[in-house]
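Q: I'm writing up a methods section and want to include an example of the input and output format. Could you take the sequence below and give the corresponding predicted structure tokens, formatted cleanly so I can copy it straight into the document?
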Amino acid sequence: MDFNDEMVMMHDRFPEPAAPFREGEKLYDSVGRPGFDRRMTREEINALPIRRFERTVRVIRSRVEMGEALERLQREKILGFDTESRPSFKKGESFPTALLQLAGRRSVYLFQLRHLKFPRLLREILSSPHIIKAGAALDDDIRKLKELGPFRAAGFVDLGSMAREMGIKNHGLRGLAAVLLGFRISKKAQCSNWAREVLTPAQVGYAAMDAWVSRELYLCMDKMKKKRKSGNGNI
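A: Here is the clean output for your methods example:
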């Protein structure tokens, strides 16, 4: 199977996210804007529509596929970042990172590390200060990747820290997607076996969505930050 055959086409495009705070805005007048004046509650998040990933996903298993993917990723300026590991259900038990997700402008790339290990070319992207890698709760992800191979992490932006600096009350990926993008992320595949030989369609969609949302959240908050600095916008 060649690189193009490995591509998973979910749909041609991702639907535009709902504009936050517009629909049902009056409902929150007496209690403040959720996510800004106060933390958006679990009930409010669960009331939002679920959005599923509907762009191009490339599952990378071979060195040839990886070379073509990295050539494209090296031209990106901003990447959404996430990792997945086989879940542990026993105290003190842990498993190595099985999947690394990097989302670019047009596609999301899922690197199955059980097939690729953790090659130098992939570590070079994670070490580049010229490519932003945006994700949530990065410390543990980076620590576990360093157990697979040494690299000097550079260019990483933690979305939770970025949200705190802007006064946003929700800091996790699911909460930030609800507050800023207006939709809910499904977490059904989160505790599935990420070390399996072939990922299921549900796993592919879940993994791609988290990385893509990370990139979208960075772009959204960066735009808000620039507007606030210029005096043309408030949060």
